[in-house]
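stage 2 :: seqdesign
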């Protein structure tokens, strides 16, 4: 389940940063885009906001950033992008400004 994947990711960041005494970054994240399913887009926004929020608040400062893999891709090119077919961003990208919810 998606929530458990996020929980496991944050736990892994804590483990790796502790074991190797290093900072880490999440460099590839993505969420399914379906322009005809606003609930799916909202879930992607919510999940990305959670990843960002927890990487800041639950890693002891060891996670230094979250990058979205190929967000500008259109769904017909790559289903885990974060833009619509017309080239405009979906609500998923809002997570970068509203993660503190």
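stage 2 :: out
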């Amino acid at each position: 389940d998606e929530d458990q994947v996020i929980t496991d990711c944050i736990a892994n960041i804590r483990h790796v940063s502790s074991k190797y005494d290093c900072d880490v970054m999440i460099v590839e994240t993505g969420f399914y885009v379906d322009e005809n399913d606003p609930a799916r887009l909202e879930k992607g926004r919510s999940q990305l906001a959670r990843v960002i929020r927890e990487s800041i608040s639950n890693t002891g400062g060891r996670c230094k950033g979250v990058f979205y893999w190929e967000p500008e891709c259109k769904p017909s090119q790559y289903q885990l992008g974060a833009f619509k077919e017309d080239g405009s961003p979906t609500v998923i990208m809002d997570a970068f400004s509203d993660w503190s919810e």
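stage 3 :: structure notes
- The beta strands are 24-29, 63-68.
- Residues 38-57 form the longest helix (20 residues).
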